[in-house]
């Protein structure tokens, strides 16, 4: 990802707007990341996929196999038996 200082970005906005079609541009201020500039098409794609829900039935066999093979590296191992099948919903007091 290309990185540009905010002062340089301000001087050459047109150049950096052209560069976003090659990929996102990180803009820094005082040597710290301040923003990331992306093309409108990439932004639309990001927004359209934000919090998109996929049901288990929509997963392909390859995706299911990848999930089954995935491992979490942790000092506190767990497995699916640790997750209850159903948690009784709690009603607010007085309901």
TrEMBL record:
SUPFAM superfamilies: YefM-like (SSF143120). It comes from the Bacteria. Pfam families: PhdYeFM_antitox. Antitoxin component of a type II toxin-antitoxin (TA) system. Belongs to the phD/YefM antitoxin family. This is Antitoxin. It comes from Devosia insulae DS-56.
């Amino acid at each position: 990802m290309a990185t540009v200082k905010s002062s340089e970005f301000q001087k050459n906005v047109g150049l950096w707007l052209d560069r976003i079609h090659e990929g996102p541009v990180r803009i820094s201020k005082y040597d710290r990341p301040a923003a990331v500039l992306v093309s409108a098409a990439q932004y639309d794609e990001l927004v359209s996929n934000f919090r998109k829900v996929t049901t288990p039935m929509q997963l392909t066999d390859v995706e299911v196999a990848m999930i089954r093979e995935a491992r979490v590296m942790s000092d506190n191992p767990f497995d699916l038996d640790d997750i209850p099948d159903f948690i009784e919903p709690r009603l607010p007091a007085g309901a």
